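Hi R.,

As promised on Friday, here is the backbone we talked about, encoded as structure tokens. Could you run it through your design pipeline when you get a chance and send me back a sequence?
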């Protein structure tokens, strides 16, 4: 998650390296809540256009017109004097974004989490695009689901949609599909990354000093080597919020 923290995104590119010298897979939630969502999404889309082989952008649950109306992105566009047609163009763009990716054939990446409706990875390729985010089903779960220490699948009460899933769900998913790791975002974690299910799943969060509740959380980028060894680069906020 970047959530409109433009200077922290610049810090990532400065510390880790910018395309085309580094290849990036972003996991969604580029806009809303932060003060410079416009700069964040414009820069990321420009990098995608300029370096299509080095930059990929997955969709997050906040790449949605409904959430953009309620969590700040559309208000930001309005304050800056942009017309409603620009908001519509962003919505059209978000509706075309992919929902998942597999790195090196072994690391499954998405914004939210797993789904009880996901039986084959080919199902994701067949999901219709462009499309709004539905309130249930595979697309919804890939954007909204969360890992939790429960047995199996339980309703995701805190989100109001989708599921929470337990460690054995992750282990079964990895074993069934011949994968090593699930890499997802969607939740703030104090150190910027947090493992789950005996290191079968990792949550990443790249917006440091994100909110009043998490005023000192780190942001993290996960680096994946050619042999799929993973390491983490952590950083603090570029500017401290008052």
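Update: got your reply. Pasting your designed sequence below so it's all in one thread:
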């Amino acid at each position: 998650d970047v959530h409109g923290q433009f200077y922290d995104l610049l810090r990532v590119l400065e510390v880790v390296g910018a395309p085309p010298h580094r290849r990036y897979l972003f996991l969604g939630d580029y806009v809303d809540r932060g003060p410079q969502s416009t700069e964040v999404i414009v820069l990321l889309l420009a990098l995608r256009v300029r370096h299509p082989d080095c930059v990929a952008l997955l969709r997050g649950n906040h790449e949605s017109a409904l959430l953009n109306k309620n969590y700040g992105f559309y208000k930001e566009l309005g304050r800056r004097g942009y017309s409603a047609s620009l908001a519509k163009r962003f919505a059209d763009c978000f509706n075309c974004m992919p929902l998942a990716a597999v790195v090196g054939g072994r690391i499954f990446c998405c914004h939210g989490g797993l789904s009880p409706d996901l039986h084959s990875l080919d199902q994701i390729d067949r999901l219709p695009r462009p499309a709004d985010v539905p309130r249930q089903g595979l697309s919804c779960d890939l954007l909204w689901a969360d890992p939790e220490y429960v047995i199996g699948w339980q309703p995701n009460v805190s989100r109001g949609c989708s599921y929470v899933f337990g460690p054995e769900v992750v282990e079964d998913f990895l074993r069934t599909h011949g994968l090593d790791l699930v890499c997802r975002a969607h939740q703030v974690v104090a150190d910027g990354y947090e493992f789950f299910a005996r290191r079968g799943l990792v949550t990443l969060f790249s917006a440091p000093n994100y909110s009043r509740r998490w005023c000192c959380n780190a942001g993290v980028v996960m680096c994946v080597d050619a042999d799929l060894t993973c390491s983490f680069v952590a950083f603090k906020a570029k500017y401290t919020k008052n």
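One thing I noticed while checking it: The radius of gyration is 17 Å.

Thanks again,
M.
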